[in-house]
Amino acid sequence: MPIPLRHAAAAGGVLVALAFAGPAARADDDAFVKQAKEFVAKVTAPTAAWNGPTTGPRAQPGKLVIYVSTDQRNSGVRAAGDGVEEAAGVIGWKFRAIDGRGTMDGELSGISQAIALKPDGIVLGGIDAASHAEAIERAVQAGIKVVGWHVGPKPGPIASPPVVFNINTEPPEVGKAAAMYAVADSNGTAGVVIFTDSIYGMAVAKSDAMAAVIKQCKGCTLLSVENAPLADTSTRMSQLTASLLARYGKKWTYAMGINDLYFDFEAPALQAAGIPGDGYPRNISGGDGSASAFQRIRQHEYQIGTAADPLRMQGWQCIDEMNRAFAGQPASGYIPPVHLFTASNIGSDGGPHDVYDPDNGYRDEYRKIWGK
């Protein structure tokens, strides 16, 4: 239809603006998609040689260490605990485990039980340190060393409450890896829903990083960030998934979670909706690398990636940091690099055994340090 004369100047201005803004915007987004693909290539590459500590104190003898987990039903927490137990056996210490059963009261009860057993050290597995500051203070006042696995929003020593070292990958980098994969896989067109758990500072750090990446991608859309407590996934995810499908329909092309657990219970709901395993939405997790996640990725069934943590290796690091504390030495400061598993690299670094267990010889390295 011809443009009326009175609107021609205005329309011309719009067309000129589009002529200049459109290609520039596309160029910016093309550059970001390229950056995402380069980042994904880096974090999916085979694990390099050991880059952790090579020196430290010899094994301190005769210790009892207790692992208090947030919830042994969570395979990531359980696998980290398996690593703690394995390493404790190698270094020559006694080991016990207590299950917090997925509730704040259960976690507090577990820490209290551990203190009552008068161990030399307590490893907190997935328990938010800030939420149990008073109990951790009680442990430290009793002369117990406290090491954490995934207990705060960033790795390293925690001053208050006093935790020798919080062992973790960098949560924002984990979130970034998951989100960059969505950008790369979609060629910059992802429509994203993020699942997080606001109880945990680490979870929020991951989901904030995910959201920031998607907002950087001009062709992507952040549909929503859903606060879905991990403890309630078995009862909530089916209904929540159905609700999101009804709300967003085909606009929802990627789901990201701060843990694989969400997709254990989302997958049946997608299947019930008639969505094939290799269809949309595609699922990507920012931790921890559960056995079921590896199986889904391998089978192309309702998950395409997980930014897994080296769970057993981190369990060994828990014991090493504890040993350094017993010897009066500072923490090693080691932070493992982020690693993303997809169908293309699931055949290495423990993937065939449904766990991220780096092929970097870490067990031998820690044995050398401890004199074992």
Keywords:
372 residues, alpha/beta, Rossmann fold, 2 domains, six-stranded mixed β-sheet, five-stranded parallel β-sheet, 11 helices, 11 strands, 46% helix, 14% strand, globular
Sum this structure up briefly:
The protein has 372 residues and is of the alpha/beta class. The chain has helices spanning 5-43, 75-91, 104-116, 133-141, 171-186, 201-216, 233-248, 261-272, 291-299, 311-326, 362-370; strands at residues 64-69, 94-99, 121-125, 145-149, 156-158, 163-167, 191-196, 221-227, 254-257, 282-285, 305-306. The strands form 2 sheets. It has a 6-stranded mixed sheet with strand order 2-1-3-4-6-5, with helices on both faces. Strands 8-7-9-10-11 form a 5-stranded parallel sheet, with helices on both faces.
Strands, helices and their partners?
Layout: H1 5-43, E1 64-69, H2 75-91, E2 94-99, H3 104-116, E3 121-125, H4 133-141, E4 145-149, E5 156-158, E6 163-167, H5 171-186, E7 191-196, H6 201-216, E8 221-227, H7 233-248, E9 254-257, H8 261-272, E10 282-285, H9 291-299, E11 305-306, H10 311-326, H11 362-370
Parallel strand pairs: 1-2, 1-3, 3-4, 4-6, 7-8, 7-9, 9-10, 10-11
Antiparallel strand pairs: 5-6
